[in-house]
Amino acid sequence: MSVLEVKDLVKDFTVRKGLKRSKLRAVNDVSFTLEPGKTIALVGESGSGKSTVARMIAKLETPSSGEILLDGVPSATRGRGLDGYRHDVQMVFQDPFASLNPFHSIEHHLERPLKLHKRAKGRGELEGQIHALLERVNLTPAEVMAKRRPHELSGGQRQRVAIARALAPGARFLVADEPVSMLDVSIRLGVLNLLARLQREENLGVLYITHDLATARHFSDEILVMFRGTIVERGPSDEVILDPQHEYTKLLLSASPDPGNQGRLRDEVRAELAASAAGGTVQDPGRDRFGTAGL
Ligand code: ADP
Ligand code: MG
Q1: What is the pTM of this model?
Q2: Domain 4-277: which CATH class?
Q3: Ligand nearest to the CA of 42
Q4: Which class for 174: exposed (0-12), middle (13-18), buried (19 or more C-beta within 10 A)?
Q5: Which among 60, 69, 193, 225 could bridge 233 via Cys, Cβ 3.0 to 4.6 Å?
């Protein structure tokens, strides 16, 4: 079975204060295993080291020590091995406004990875694949969306493009670093539902990075709580939230706002998930649940 394994990952940064240089351990001995069809949430406050973990997995940062294994094999840091790794492991960043090039059409953004990873031959096949990707992330009609430029899209739509681009190489694992924290509250659920659907229906493994415990609980199987670079608590999502053991988790929970609104949203998610797990609902294929398509 295919797995993405992170083993004893450490990252030290050298920081300067005036003339003095000191070492900052941003990530300290982080280990976990991500399986296809599962979501792991990495939760912690700003500065706890979450993005550094993501960047090491995405090979944008080199670990000081530790390993990243794909299917049991240490992942390459360059050359063809790295290309192969990038087929399988892709990243969605926090800022949907910074991640797309304003001068290029949506089509262009998807065309590049498809070509780079040799996913399509010829113009017709390429176009077909671009449209299929847009449909997978509910950006329809695909022919219309393909021609748009980033400024014509909302933040939520841009994040869907970023997800489509991550899927383009045929990714089996997605690292989503605070994928909805810069979006309007009203459209966050649509994007998270999309990730949940891909995870479930396409057997994607998702590392969901967030500071929001409520969505971590509802969209992930397992929660890792990170504090100053170290995983201080981990376990099945419900257990971590309902019976936190570590003081830091308790603190995060007490600080986490849970207005009635969010609770209601969660109940809706729960009901929908239960219904679809039971095979009860027939979904309009063009839309996410709650009709949030294209938001
Ligand atoms: P999070 O994503 O949880 O907010 P980060 O991984 O971005 O946390 O940062 C963890 C710590 O590492 C912070 O103290 C941050 O300032 C530091 N850090 C991150 N990147 C660098 C870097 N390139 N150079 C020096 N320090 C860094
Ligand atoms: Mg971050």
Answers
A1: 0.86
A2: alpha beta
A3: 1
A4: buried
A5: 225
Distance (Å) from CA 49 to ligand 2 centroid: 7
Residue 264 Cβ inside 6 Å of ligand 1? The answer reads no
| Strand, coil or helix: 268 | helix
DSSP letters spanning 223-235: EEEEETTEEEEEE
For ligand 1, atom 22, which residue shows the shortest CA distance? 13
Domain ranges of the chain: 4-277
CA gap 203, 199 in Å, rounded: 5
Cα 26 to averaged position of ligand 1 atoms, centre (Å)? 6
Residues 6 or more apart whose Cβ sits within 8 Å of residue 183 = 96, 155, 156, 159, 191
CA dist 141 and 103 (Å) reads 21
Q: Is the CB of 62 under 6 A from ligand 1?
A: no
The pLDDT profile of the chain, 295 residues, written as one tens digit per residue, is 689 999 999 999 999 988 899 999 999 999 999 999 999 999 999 999 999 999 999 999 999 999 999 999 998 777 888 888 998 999 999 998 888 999 999 999 999 999 887 888 888 999 999 999 999 999 999 999 999 999 999 999 999 999 999 999 999 999 999 999 999 998 999 999 999 999 999 999 999 999 999 999 999 999 999 999 999 999 999 999 999 999 999 999 988 765 444 444 445 544 554 555 454 333 333 333 333 333 3
Q: How far is CA 149 from CA 20, 108, 138, 185, 293, in A?
A: 46, 9, 17, 23, 18
Q: What tokens appear for 281 in the block?
A: 């609902």
